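Sorry to interrupt, but I need a hand with the structure work. Could you write out one complete protein record for me, on any chain you like? Could you add the entry underneath, on a fresh line?
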Amino acid sequence: MEKDAPNPSLKTIVATAQPRSRDRGVLTVTGGEEAGRLISLTEAQLTFGRSDDANIQFADVSLSRIHARLIRAGGNWIIADAGSTNGTFVNDERLTKPVALADGDRVQLGSSTLLRFSLVDDTEEQSLRQVYEAAMKDGLTGVSNRKHLEERLDAEVAYALRNQSELSLVMLDVDHFKRVNDTYGHPAGDAVLKFMASTLKQTLRTEDLLARYGGEEFCILVRGVDARTTTAVADRLRLWISQSPIQWETQQIWITSSAGVASLACCGDTPDKATLVSTADQRLYKAKHGGRNRVVGPGA
């Protein structure tokens, strides 16, 4: 019996994998008050510092107002110190002139903010972002989670005390949330929490932090604003929420909220994070037991 002859029409095709184009620059914060933060380098010129005028801001008192500059030129990312007091370092060497960054370089701003420069493709950047968001974001609402809030509270309280600046905290709770779940079901309750997060987020400044503290409770960390002004803002939010029905399937769900507001100035001669949180929480409790759909701040 003859063996079948090789079929000349069948060819072995060797696919050569094309190398990925790693041309997107990112900085990952590896140490300091915002560890885990991912910074996409999407602009040709960027400034780093603690000033509101910096493109990339850090709440690190060791940084100068405008600390360092990063420029895209000739396909390279070039970093230069901007005359800072505490210096900019690349791979532990203090910069005395501009330097082109290479993949994997370590960058230090001031005494405690550490970053890693990476060249990535779209897929790798997305993966890095997903890791960061999983660690820092609430899975349901997309706002910061309690872990991230606690870390930012530590940093912001320390910064405010060092600089004798204002720092306020709003603790806000959905009234009768269990009733929503019992009446409409838990998916409707989830929709209410997403609505709360979206509504609150729309009204905040970029420097404010919104976090889900747990269950139906949210926190807003407000930098540079005193408690009385923050109380007025929280009351406008309360009113907006009470006048905005949530569409759920064929029904509308109406909700109200209560809030407690405190600032470091409310916390006695030795203000700290624990006192700030407990004061805001006590005022939230007072708002709930005073009839709900209200905000309690200082002097109330």
Helices lie at 122-136, 146-163, 177-184, 186-203, 227-242, 273-289.
